[in-house]
Amino acid sequence: MAHHPLAGLPMETFSHGIRSGIGHPVLGFDHLFFVVAMGIMAHLSGHRFKAPLFYIAAMLAGCSAAYAGLNLPLQEAMIALSLIVLGGLIARNRTGGRGAVLMAFAGFGLFHGAAFGASIAAQEGGAGAAVLIGYLTGLGVVQYLIAVGAGLAARQASTLQTQLAGAMVAGVGVFLCLEQIEGPLIALMSAG
Predict the structure, then answer these.
(1) pLDDT single digits (tens) 163-181
(2) 189: burial class by Cβ within 10 Å (0-12, 13-18, 19+)?
(3) What tens digit of pLDDT does each residue of 114-134 get?
(4) How many other C-beta atoms lie within 10 A of the C-beta of residue 97?
(5) Which residues contact 34 (CB under 8 A, 6 or more apart)?
(6) C-alpha distance from residue 175 to each of 30, 167, 168 (Å)
(7) Quick one: CA dihedral 116, 119, 125, 126, positive or negative?
(8) Residue 47 DSSP code
């Protein structure tokens, strides 16, 4: 349901696109955890309002490219890695340089966007322009607001609370990595 908060109905209008665009990153916990971590990292780097825009721009580009049929490889692995990297940096109370933060946001944004775009292309291959514009608008606005909100919350949090949030995000990333290798490992064990 993370991909479609319309109870399985097809998206046919701008409003449907907006609702699905808002729902996917909120109900898709891998994306939600990344956006929260991004907001915390943006706050720690001192660019709470500007840095998330790099993610949003790259995410929208990745989404549009995937919708057009240009998919990035290893999307789910990169999404898991994005959680491990940002969560790990936050847990260690490290931000890196401003340029590194912006590049990480943009790079990971391409993969998160590709996953968003692949989901709408798979579910709504014939979705019209109004649906797609609504979807992209919902994705961009809700993620920016979540990131800024997480940054504002981090401003009020203690260093330990922020580090624990980072550790939790990194832990979710490790879980997602393990989940991805579970199937191939079981297949390998069954073959032997």
Answers:
(1) 999 999 999 999 999 998 8
(2) exposed
(3) 988 887 766 655 567 888 899
(4) 9
(5) 79, 82, 83, 86, 108, 112, 169
(6) 10, 12, 11
(7) negative
(8) -
Q: List the structure tokens of 87.
A: 């969560």
- Apex CA 26: angle with CA 44 and CA 184, to 5°? 95
Select the highest-mean-pLDDT range: 18-22, 61-65, 168-172: 168-172
Contacts of 73-79 with C-beta under 8 Å, sequence gap 24+, read 74/111, 75/111, 75/114, 75/115, 75/118, 76/115, 76/176, 76/180, 77/177, 77/180, 78/108, 78/111, 79/30, 79/31, 79/34, 79/108, 79/111, 79/112, 79/115, 79/176
Cα 138 to Cα 112: distance, rounded to the nearest angstrom: 14
Cα–Cα dist 17/32, whole Å: 18
